[in-house]
């Protein structure tokens, strides 16, 4: 399975990675590569836990993705 991952730097210059399709699934690393390796492990763990609990595995629970504009 493929999942979209969001990357950003936190206040300590760590790269934070999160997977929007799996709420609460996030990790971090000192480098982009480390963050991506860590989020892959986190995604695997989330999927295994969801299987055990009988929950959807990810994107299939999303009905729609929309983009909104916010004036700032």
Outline the biggest β-sheet: 3 strands, antiparallel
Oligomer: single chain
Strand order of the largest sheet: 1-2-3
Which structural category fits the helices and strands?
Answer: alpha+beta
Q: In the CATH scheme, what's the topology name?
A: Double Stranded RNA Binding Domain
N/C terminus separation:
36 Å
Rg over CA atoms, rounded to whole Å, is 14 Å
**What percent of residues adopt helix (DSSP H or I)?**
25-40%
**Would you list the SSEs in sequence order as H and E?**
EEEH
Overall pLDDT: 87
Number of domains: 1
What amount of the residues lies in strands? 15-25%
CATH uppermost class? Alpha Beta
CATH architecture: 2-Layer Sandwich
Low-confidence segments, given as residue ranges, are: none
Please describe the topology of this protein.
Layout: E1 6-9, E2 15-18, E3 26-29, H1 32-53
Antiparallel strand pairs: 1-2, 2-3
Q: What is this entry, summarized?
A:
The chain is α+β, with helices and mostly antiparallel strands and 72 residues long. The protein contains one helix and three strands; from the N terminus they run βββα. It has a single domain (6-58), classed as Double Stranded RNA Binding Domain (2-Layer Sandwich).
């Amino acid at each position: 399975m493929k999942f979209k991952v969001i990357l950003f730097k936190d206040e300590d210059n760590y790269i934070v990675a999160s997977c929007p399709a799996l709420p609460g699934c996030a990790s971090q690393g000192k480098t982009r590569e480390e963050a991506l390796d860590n989020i892959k492990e986190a995604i695997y763990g989330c999927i295994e836990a969801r299987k055990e609990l009988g929950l959807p595995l990810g994107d299939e629970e999303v009905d729609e993705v929309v983009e909104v504009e916010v004036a700032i």
